[in-house]
Amino acid sequence: MRKVIIAANWKMNMTVAETASYIPTFLAETGDDTEVDVVLIPPFTSLPKASELIGEAYSLKLGAQNMSAQKSGAFTGEVSAAMLRELFVRYVLVGHSERRQLFGETDQTVNAKLHAAHEATLKPILCIGETLAERDGGQVEAVLMRQLREGLAGLDHKQIQETVIAYEPVWAIGTGRNATPAQAQEAHALIRSEIGQIAEPAVAERLRIQYGGSVKVSNAGELLGQPDIDGALVGGASLDPRDFAEIAKAAKAAKE
Ligand code: PEP
Question: Which residue's CA is minimally distant from atom 8 of ligand 1?
């Protein structure tokens, strides 16, 4: 049984004050339900406050939106894995499509970050997904396979198993247009089968694959009802703590 994992990617939103009001509201709605892993991924500036407020809430984990592949040194503006660990960060997004498209991250950069994250015992959430042009061109499988093979290169089986994969079709991110449950399930099944080839079938069975792309309260249950969808990476709809709590509840209910 794979534990459901729901993550909130706040992107460049939410001040420290807004973070301080979000977390108690969210916890009041969910009551620290430990059957689901909930990961809050605020901007760096809100991590200390979020860490303090999460306190003893066992269901809530902290994630970062990005990290450097380097350990330390002259890398102005960057943040290392050890710095994140110091703030009790457990997860880190790697290769989000916005970082690939707007900040020039390649599969090689992503691979270096995955190695650095595992070395620091941070669990990476590796984001992969095709653009609309790639989907229309019949390249979904080829793109996902390349991003997986190059992204995960050199990791051992245990590290692969502890990586979370987020399938995020680029055309569905922030557009209001989600993949249909059938489209998402097809991609997730492909990803799981490819992980079985890269590592071994037992690793693929245990690895968690999230869907991301316009997940909201109204579609979370149906998406999470698919057998290979183990969670969701939520952008826009995670900015409202009540909506995000409803998504977490819908995800849990879909797996019962
Ligand atoms: C994301 O940024 O990872 C995302 C899925 O965004 P949204 O839910 O807004 O589409």
Answer: 235
